[in-house]
Structure formats: C-alpha cells, structure tokens
Records
---
Amino acid sequence: MSEFLNPDFWAFVLVIAGIYSIFSLGLQLQFGFGGLLNFGQVGFSLVAAYTMAILVARYGVDLWLASVIAIGFSMVAGAVVAIPTLRLRAFYLGIVSLAMSEILRYLALNLQGLTGGPLGSPGINGPGHVAQYTNQWFLMLDSIRERLEPVLGAMATRDVATLLVVWIVAFALIGLLEILVRSPWGRALKAIREDEDAAAAMGKDVFMFKLQVFIVGAAIGGLAGIFLALQLSAFVANDFKPILTFYGFVIVILAGTARMAAVPIGGLVFAFIFAGTRFFTFAPFDVLSSAERSYVRLILIGVILILLMRFRPQGLFGRKEELML
Amino acid sequence: MQELIQLLANGVIVGSIIALGAIGITLVFGILDIGSFAHGDYMTFGAYGAFGAIAASGLPFPAALVVAALATALLGIFIDVAVLRWFQNKGPDSMIIVTLGVALILRHVIYFVAGSAPRAYPIDVTTVLDLGLIRISIVQLTVVVAAVVVIVITAWFLANTSLGKSMRAVADNRDLAAVAGVNIRRVRWSTWFVSSALAGVGGTLLALSQASFNPELGWTILLMLFTASILGGLRSAYGTLAGALIVGIAMETSTWSGFFGGLDGVYKPIIAFLILIGMLMIRPQGLFGKARLV
C-alpha cells in the first residue's frame, strides 16, 4: 500500500502517461487522420533513442542537437518503411512496419560495436566504461526543481520536474498537430482517408500526402523514444518491443480515432492500468507473483481493446461521423 | 560444397515448418479475408498443448502432435466465434488490430499458465544420421516427414473433398459461392479448423527443432510466415509452400562461407525481411499472384 501514498510513484505514472501520449499522437496522426496502420512505431522510437544516446555518450554532442539529429534518423526510417508499402493495402504497411521494428531491435541487440548490444546503452562505449547520456538532462531537471522548491517544498523532485517537461511538450505538440490537421494539408488528408480516388481526382497527390503523414508520425515516435530513454536513464534494445506500439493503439482507440486533444486522456487511462496498478501488492492481489500480475495486466489491456472496438469503436471521446473502425 | 548441400537441407527443414504456419495465414486471408497477426501465437499454443499432453499423460510424440493439432483447431474456431466474428463486417483495419489484440492476450495467457521458463520436449535430440553428403538428426527427419505428410493431406483435402472445393470457391468469389449454395458458416469453421491445426503442428515441430522454447516462440516467426505467404501471392497454398521453401533456404544459405564468407546466423530474420521488402517493391502480388488482388 505504501506506494499508493507516495507522490513520486504517481509522478512516475503521470510521466509514463505523458510519454505514451506523445508516442500515440504520432499514431493518431497516421491512423486517425491518415488511415495508415503503423505497427512499427516503436522502431522509430528505438532509432531515435539509440541515435541520441550514441551521439551524446560517444561523441559528446549537445543533447538538444543530438535529439534533433535523432528525430531526423527516425524520419528516414519512416520513409524506408513507407515508400515500398504505401501503395498497397493497409495490411502490408502493418506487416512491413512491424517487421522493421523487430529487425531494428534485432540489430540493436547484435551490433555490439555500435549499440552496446546486449549490454544496452551503458555499453555504447564498449564494455568496461559505463556510457551515460543523461548528464545534461539531469542538470536541466535540477535547475527546474530548484525553481519549483519555493512553491512545492519537499514535493519538488526530479520526477515532478520530468513530469512538467514531458507534459509541456505533449501539450505543445497537440497544439501544433491541431493546427496541422485543420490546415488545408490536414483537410486533404481527411479527404484521402475518406475516399482516396475522389481525392486523387481532385488533383491531390495521394502518395505524397501519405508519405508526409507517415514521416511526421515517425518523427513523433522518435521524440517519444528520446523521452523514454531519458526517463529510463539507461535502456536496452528489449525496452522497444512491439508491445509498445500496441499500447499506442490502445491509447488511440481509448481516445477515439481522429481526436487529437483526447489522446492524453487515453494516455492517462492507459498509464493507470499499466503503471498505476503496481500498488496492487496487497491481498487479495498478492496471491499472484509480480510476473503473473504483469501478465494479467497485459491480458486485461488486450481485453479492454477488443471490448472497446466491439462496443465503443469511436472511443471514449470520438465522434461517430469520423469513425474509422 | 558439402557445406552448401547441408545448408540447403537445413533450409528445406526450416522452410517446411514455415510452410505449416504460412499456409494457414494464406487460407485465412484468401478465404475469410482476415490478415491474422495472431497466427504465430496459435503455433505457440500448439507447442505448449503438445508439451502439456506429454507432461500430463506421457503420450508419445506423434500422439502429442495430434493433440496439439486438435487443440489449436478448436482454439481457432473458438476465437473466431467469440471474437473475430464481431468484426467481419467492419473495416479491414479493425480486424487487423483485433487479431493483434488476440495475439497479445493469447501469448500472455500462455505466459500465465506455463511460465516464462524455457521448455523442451523429453525427446533425445542428439542422435544424428549420417547420409553421406548431409547429416540430419532424428528430430530434423521427424520434422520434415511430419511436415510433408501434413501438407500432402491438406493439399488432398483442398483439391478433392467437397468441403475443400467449397473453401476454394469462397476464396475465388464469396458472393457467387453463397448464391451457389455453399454453406458459408461451414466453410468459415473448416477454414479455421484447417489453418489452426496446421499452426498447431507447425508450432510443435518448430519447438521440437529448437533446443528449447518459450511463449515468444510463434511471435518471433510471424514475419517469416508473412514473407512466405506474400511471396506465394497470399492466396495460393502451393505458392505459399514455394515461398516458405525459398525463405527457409535463403535464410539458411546466408550463412554459407562461399557467400561473402557467410553471414552471422543472427542475421537470418533480416534476410527474410529483405526478401519481403524487395518482393513488395518489385512484385507485390507475389511470385504467383494476380495484380488485381493486391
């Protein structure tokens, strides 16, 4: 029960909610607005996380610059997945994107010289010296914490500072995306989603629109990957399993497809189930081991997804007229 | 040279396991228009079904294989009736996401029941037959023989029985088949029965061919199943068989020392991925498929 009353625990849950919300905003753009089924979003997060960590830990690049370059790499990976598959049925994009994310994880696990291999990010500079990419991030968090201290007192921790940064970025991103989807570009995108042939007949280059939306979504996946890496302080390739992409879809469907501003609520609901239920360590829940509880949690997430799709496909906040599913 | 022949033989073994899973994907896609991301986990279910049968009642391996096939066949029908049927008339995206959800649930149910510890069948895997040019273990021989038998039975079933003919008729044109009096529900259930039973056998053989297996068994092979299925054009069982052999042989021979010194074995899945991407760019309808269906 002790965790239930610990503010840091709930700050952690909110940070998870924020990072997953950012991750899912990319999927919302691709799927909710573009009708594109990206099952490999976690691959773009992986690319960005490793690129950032390698640039910072091995080459001493500034964290901000490294993050920008890292997101660029995610966008290139997005183009590689999208170009061969966008002309085909949604199913093919799903397969290829999922496969690519698994291949990237596989490469990250095995290319020891580049990624640290099975050692994960601490092994980026080779075994023997522990590689770190978080110094600048922690300095920033500490300076935020110092400014919060007069207001929050003992509650001002690094976790609370992280929470602020993540959610400010998430809301800024939502603002940008709302502008984007209301722009002529966003309207063309919706037209393509509703009727590709009609949009093409109006002179819209369907392929280019889909490619652009996929690459922007991949960039957002990359941004989430950088936050995930910073939050974890050290990561391994297996922190980027396809299950994360699946969580993203659960959040998008909870929020309702084509509802950008509702994504954080999906993220909060998800984070409560996924991370917030970790304080259920008392009776009767303690009959299950911690591993068993994690399996039950995942089964529950799968069941919720299927029930939502069955009984409330527009999500908690979706509009029926924009129903995708 | 002998190394290459050995690798070709290994490729045929791997390919026949992939075929068992991929033919199921092809049948379900061709007949029911469902792209199932859960098929790998059906294979895992079969592998654990056989393991449970052997552990609980000491069944001999061939009998456990039959148990795995039947248990997975029933699972396939159950999941269709309990879940997938709801989504048949919604968009294709719904169905794909739901199968991914089914995969997640099934895998973690297996984790919950069987635990994450690696398992192995209580079978001697060390005996090796020396056939001159190639060396093949008893296990590998079992895998190939079982796979060939099952594939031949499936082919015979599809070609000669009235049910098999109905299934192919639905794959060709569902509405026409329905008008002609084909019992669509019967076809639907038999499709799931056949493709899930194949997955159960394939999963068990896959588990047998590895030193040990865990609940990720089938999920990790899913990409290879899709690659084989797409190579074959996604609608042809024979095309899928050919695709599976191509994928299996390509993955195994990539380690041949005559091929740029041979790739490290860990890169085999990447070979399958490159074949998939290359195929989709050059000929998305597959080696034997028709372009109008893509």
---
Amino acid sequence: MGHGFQELTDEELDAYILTRLKGLGVDLGVLPEDDEDAPADRKRILESARRFLRSTPPAIHGFEMDVQEVPPVMYPAELTGRTGGEE
Amino acid sequence: MAMDGREAVDGREAAPPQDRAFDRRSFLGRMTAVTAAASMGIPAVTPLPLSGGASRPFAPEVPLPDPESLRQEDPAGLTLAEAAVMIREGYLSPVELLEAYLARIEAKDELYMAFNTVVAERARERARRLDRAPWRGPLHGIPVAVKDNYYTAGVPTTANSFIFEDFVPEFDATAWARLREAGAVLLGKTQMGPLATSRATTPEGDVTTVNAWAPHDPDVSPGGSSSGSATAVAARMAAAGTGTQTGGSITNPALAQGLTGIKPTMGRVSLYGIIPLTYTRDHPGPIARDAKDAAIMLQAMAGPDPADPRTLGLPPVPDYVRAAEPVLRAGRPALRWPTTIGVPPGYLDESEEVEEQPGEDPIPPERRRRMEEARRRQQAAIEARRRMLTRFEELGARVVDVEWPDEWDTLTSWDFNNVRLPERSEPFLDVLKEDVRLFGVSLSPWINGLLLSGTEYLRGQRAKLLLLRRVLDGLFAHCDVVLQTRPFPFDMIGLPLVAFPVGTDGSAGAERPVGAMLGGLPYGEERLLSLVAAYQSVTDWHRRRPAEPGAGPGTGSRGGARGGEPGLPGGRGRIDLREVMEHGE
C-alpha cells in the first residue's frame, strides 16, 4: 500500500503545502507565479515540495527500528560544560 | 630528525593515535545528544570570553628544508608551512607575504571571483603590527581567506544572502578568533553558495567563483559552498582558507581544485559565530595546499569553546602538526602508525555508475555531454585510486576490502539525507515569515524543511544513530580508515573526512585534479592527516598548481550580496533548483 502523500493529487498536495505554510505564517504569494528568470517562483517551489513529500516521508516511515535499540537520549555535552568537564 | 626534516621512528613506536583510544559509547551518546538537542532547539548561549584554544600556547615546530632554498620562490607560491619558516627565520616579513597575495588578488580575482570582500588596508595594518611582534607560531603573519559565513568583527558577513546583506558582526567566530590570535591575517571574506547551499553564487543564483583549474569554463564546478576559499587557495590568492561542511563543502572543493581539506569530527571545532545551516551536520575546517598546512590550520581552530556545548568534554586536542610530519622507518618513508585502509564495494569498479541526480527526462544534450565527461573523469579517478593504494601499501599500509553495513543504501539515501532540512528552517522561521524572497535562489529546501513532521524528523535522526552505530561497530571493526567517494554519510554522522589530490584526469591542455577521500573514526584527524602527509611525502600531486590564466571569456564583475554589480557581464550562468537541492553544502 502506498504512503498517503503518494496517493494525493497535485492539487491536494498543493492545498496541504499552502495550508501548512499559512499556518506557520509563511506566504508564498509574494513570489511570481511562474517566472523562470526569477530566483524562485511558486511553480518551482511547489513542484519541489511535492516531490519531497512524495519521497522523503514515505521512505522514513517505511524504515522501522526497535525503540529499545535506538532511543533518543539527552545531550551530555551541555551537562559536561556545567559540571566540571573539560573546557 | 632526518636531514630532510622527516622524523625517523626506527626502534620505537610512535604514541598511539587518538582514534583508537576514544570511548565509542561516549561518542554514540554525544551524537545522540546532538540529535536530541536539535530536536529540542539548542539553548541560547551567552558569548563568553575566548578561552582554551584561543589563549593556549600554540607554537608547534615546523621542520623544513633550509629557508635559503626557498628564497627565490614567489611568496604566494609557498605553502603555509614554508612561509612560516621563512617568516620565523627572517627571510620574509608578514608585510611582504601579504603584499604578494594582495597583488595576485588585484590582478586575478576579477576572473576567479573568489572573494566577496577584500580588506586590504586592514590587513596591511595588521601585517605591519605583526612585523614588529614576537613570532607567535606558524600562523604568524599568514594571510588567510575566510568563508563569508564566519563572523568577523567589523567586517561584513553576508553568507552571500539577502538576509545578511547588511550584517556586520561585533565579534569573531571562535574558529576565526583562534586563527587570528595565532597570528593569521584576514585577507577577506570568500564567495560561497547562498547560506552555504550549492556552489558560490549571488543570492539570485548567478554563478560567481570559478574553478582555478578551469577559470574560463564556469560550468566546471569549483566544488561546494566553500568554493571561494578553495579557489583563493588554489589560485595562490591566499595561503589557506576556512570552510564549512554540511554536505561535502570542504572535501568537494578540495577534490575539485587539487587541495587538502579536512572536515573534523563533530564538536572538534566550535561553530559559535558561524551562520548555521544544519545544527547536527555543520563542521568548520581548513582548506589548504597540503596535509601539513591543513594540520597547522586545524591545530589553531580546534578546541573546547564554552559558547558551543558540542565542543565540551571531548578528548584533548592532539598535536596535528606533528602527526602531519612524514616519518622514516628503516630509512624509508613510512606511515606514522600501523593502519588498515578499508576499500568499500565498487571503489575500483570501472563500470561504477556516475551518480545521476533526478532531473529532466529525456536528458538534454549538454547535460549528457557533461555526464560523459564525468564518466571519463571517473575512469581516470579509478586509475589514480589504484596507484594511490599501491603507494599506501609501499608505505606499509594494510589494504583490505570492506563491506557496507546492513541497509547502507537506505540509511545513506537522499531521503534520509533530507532529515537535515528542518534544522535549517527552524532558526530562520522568522525570516521565512517576513519575506520568502530574502532566500533568493536557495528558498526551496527551507520550505521543504517546514513540511517534515516531528515524527519523521525524530525517526530520521534515530536512523542516523543506527547508521553511526553500524559504521563504528561494523565498518571500523575491519579497518582504521575507509575510502569514500561521497561526503555523506561521514558528514551526516559527524565522523572526520579528509580529501587530497591523487592524480589528474589526463585531459590534454585542460588537466584537472582528481582526488581521494578517507573517512576516519571519531577524533581520527591526526591519523588522517598522518596518512595524507605520508602519501604526499612520496607523491607530488599536492605540489601541482593550476596554470596562470590567460585572457579568455568568462570575466566579469565581482558579485556577492553587497557591492559589485549583480549582473555578470561574462555570463557565467545561473544555478537551478536541482543544484540548490542536491549539491554540496
């Protein structure tokens, strides 16, 4: 079964992307719609974002690890710096 | 000491290198912690007075041939170590050395576009003071090119981005401060990819810096985002340079321009005062002409910094300069330490595919031509690799085939590499909200970083730790260093990586260097530098310099985030989105 992002249409993904960005306060509307001479335009940014969503999240979700084997832990260096470790 | 300056180690073993003495579990914990810190947000740090490496004694010996033999050289053609001896012995003054470099910059940089800013008068004032000052060590009076993402007090620091267009820091990045305190002279700030993405361009994406080996062909990449520093060093416009590597941007420019560049272990060099790209992967390091020069630079740059917790609690900084001195055993050049070199699958495979990036289909003719050229260079590189391995065996290295750890292709894939992207978006969120146009040509990865969820980020970071564990327990169970053809995963997982020249591509009349990369264990910088130094003691690839450029197409005005002209009359082209997304950082 495909990953959810891979099953969405371009229009659905664009809506997702723009909603997510709007929720963060990021506005792509200031970019030109389609202008190859511009450093960036909405068309290319959205194309890139769609490719990214269809590839990277599915690949990461498809890789499973034992949480006991690979746990996230705290950052020791900050503690070392405050408790007499080498400086 | 042998007459030629090489150290004889007959009858005794050199003290063991640091990489086999470290606590593997400690490093794993540290890297896990870097991940956790990034996911939580690095706490704000208060700038503290520089300590540790900035003020510690720093005067390693640099034994070299008689300075008299170097007197007739163009000072700008000397290696850093050679210039250091000339200055120490009074045959050359910091002012004379500086003027030699400034003259070359004045004459050549319109073509190379390696510099974003040149601070000639400031440098002259500094060199004059150093002329009168006691010798501080091998960096005394050495002109250095600094990448434009290192804070330099009173000197604009733009990262070639609109975002930092008017930014003038009030303090120095720790890594630069240490070089300065060791006596280095700031020549200027170098061109870079905007915010350290891609090759060097203006914020809009117009190509600026060219490869010193092909200055009239802007399509020949100078390497990744530290290409301004690399071109400055390769074109003899600086004695050495600083770079940062997130995805290959120290090692790639070194490979592209016949230089020696080392990306140290995560935390070995402070990132404080360097404009961030990716917390868990940014590494500052030197780009130099050979292993000795890289060692001298790294010696000054490395060390604990209270302002960067990633640097605390590490093993003490060893003597890199001594490690980079070639040794003799039974009167013959030899490795300083017994070393097993791992050769990964495909390393000598002539049918190895040149990596193709996703892009247009069908492939345009020009891109196809470049791919075919890349294949030809690949074949030349493989021949050079074979010769290199023979040299290392003659030096006493043991060369073994090694296998990649389980799930290597997955864990080092582009998708897992993309896990870094939220780390660049997060510190710039306010700028993204203000106006996305400030990111110029580099915008896309910052947007994509906003789209990765927390669960995906954490899982990707855990996968990175699994990869690190498998590299340490699996790959390095069979060797001390391993040859690499790509910068990642070593820059993904914080392990040291050195690039150095091993041949040329054999192109008649347009010869370009090819290089090799060795990856090491945590804190393996001294072994890596010792290996490259031994190799360079029996080869001369590192001594080859690009020809002086004649008149030709491709000249233009200096670009950059400020000053100069944004348009490039020479028409060096513009990078596209693919290059921003997928090339060296």
